[in-house]
Write a structure and sequence with these properties.
The chain has 2 helices and no strands. The longest helix has 34 residues.
């Protein structure tokens, strides 16, 4: 939610465009990494739930 605000709704006012671009690029990277980690964790949980054995 915070990322959405800074990426779309936040009024950057008089901040230099290059700085805004760099901040938004960093925030997009964080968002993508978070999404990728969530997918990995969901895959792991799914694998464990499908397993007949307690492998851990």
């Amino acid at each position: 939610m915070v990322l959405k605000i800074f990426l779309k709704d936040f009024d950057w006012g008089n901040v230099e465009k290059e700085k805004v671009y760099r901040v938004k690029a960093t925030l997009k990277t964080i968002k993508n990494q978070t999404t990728n980690r969530e997918k990995i964790l969901n895959d792991i949980v799914s694998f464990i739930n499908e397993s007949d054995e307690n492998e851990f």
